[in-house]
Amino acid sequence: MATGYLAWRGNVCPDSWRLYFVVMLGDQPVGMQDLIGVKFDTLKTVTTFSWLAPGIRRQGLGREMRAAILHLAFEGFGALEAASEAFFDNVASNRVSEVMGYQPNGNDWATRRGEPAVLNRWRLKRDDWALSSRNDIGLIGVEECKPVLHIQ
Description:
Residues 1-125 form the N-acetyltransferase domain. InterPro entries: Acyl_CoA_acyltransferase (IPR016181), GNAT_dom (IPR000182). This is N-acetyltransferase domain-containing protein. By secondary structure, the chain is α+β, with helices and mostly antiparallel strands. It has one domain: Aminopeptidase, CATH 3.40.630.30. The protein is built from six helices and six strands; from the N terminus they run αββαβαβαββαα. A hairpin with a 2-residue loop joins strand 5 and strand 6 (115-125).
């Protein structure tokens, strides 16, 4: 896993970037939220990835994380669409996608602990996000980040 993160961190170009955010609760890191752009300069689509420590789940933090990263993607970077995936039996993650307005977008196969498992795919279009976007999320320093990510 660490090798994958290091490879992504060292590879920012117009066709591929990934932002890593640590989720803090007080002074404790409790999770992560990533925003991934592949061919963002052309497609204006992003993918989100998140993880929360088991003892922190079921407190609404997953929805807060997703709302914040979607605000950055749509409001800050001008994305037109966001995608997410969750294993079919990850009820909480699938529910967050549903509550945030994502629509089902088929499924796919992945491996989990060396075994095949079904992934549910989700898609959220900008217009659907705008219907429930929040006005209590602020963005700071986004304009300075855009050139580094090759976002115009």
